[in-house]
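Researcher: Sit down with what I've pasted below and flag anything odd:
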Amino acid sequence: MAKKTIDQIDVAGKTILMRVDFNVPLDETQKITDDRRIRMALPSIKSVIDRGGKLILMSHLGRPAGTGFEAKFSLAPAAACLAEILGQPVAMASDTVGEDAVAKAGALNDGQVLVLENLRFNSGEKKGCGEFAGKLAAFADGYCNDAFGTCHRSDASMVAVPQAMEGKPRVVGHLVAREIQYLSDAIGNPGRPFVAILGGAKVSDKINVINNLLGICDAVLIGGAMAYTFSLANGGQVGDSLVEKDKVDLAKELIAKGGDKLHLPVDTHCGDDFGDIAGCNKKVVAAGEIPDGWEGFDIGPETAAKYAAVIKDAKTVVWNGPMGVFEKPPMDEGTKAVAQAVADGDSISIIGGGDSAAAVDQLGFADQVSHVSTGGGASLAMLEGQAFAAVDLLDDTES
């Protein structure tokens, strides 16, 4: 069932409590180094204030101890950044549910914005505390979830707050609506052939994803360091490559289950010094033939060509995890070839968050894919087929 969006409720003269993802990177001087997460929340923010609503924003930032204020994790820089982008003042509370937050929430006028201090300064956030959630819920006449990156979590702001606001409007923002549309449609009603590309370091991180996608995809392409665990499972030699020896039996099970659907690398680009990839000795070897003293750093050119051919015919592509050490040329070639194939195709292409999103952005393909997810962990959880309580309990559309 599709969820009601922020645009579909009346906000004029009302206070809306919106969970956003302002978990932005800060340098040592507390300056924001990348404000994309703030800018991506703008459509939902403007939907409220441009229609005469009062808006209270809440978010986490980093991993504070949960025992009170920590300057390096303050949301004050995010509030200042938002004010600059909006071209209007943005109030900043010095706490989350304390006296300052209560006073500033009560002083809001129509069209104004308040940012609460970091939710994780209060231990109740990570614990999903009902009492903490109730205090947050008391601020507002409606709730909006626009933080897809934490939709798979049971934090108070994600689950207990909307639970406490039963009977009031509880909706999704533009960002979450878009994520649900792309990811749930890909899983539930994909155009075919449906191809999944999975990379990254560990099989253990992607077990459930691989299992789920093998049941619904036409092809699953494996890259990244986890490919070496599969290689070991096939009796191959992996040299000093990063592997999970305790997951070899699991890899064997996935190989057996996957059959022709599961595509493993046929060659590997390797080197003899991870600390100096640019200057070390490098060579391409057949998969399973990495010598001692050498490490696999990327899929080889034959694998990249084979994968590109599969991707070319796809109608739906889901990609989570790079093919190699894309941050360090020339070991970005495999990821680049796959990204080029995705960009050149006519599929609905969905890029998982985290390293996949960074790779596509760094390599210049972000504008040539259908959707880049904002939540690595959340997109993985959705690809696993997990239900999200944070979304399920929000209001359904009438139709």
Summary: The first helix runs from residue 36 to 40.
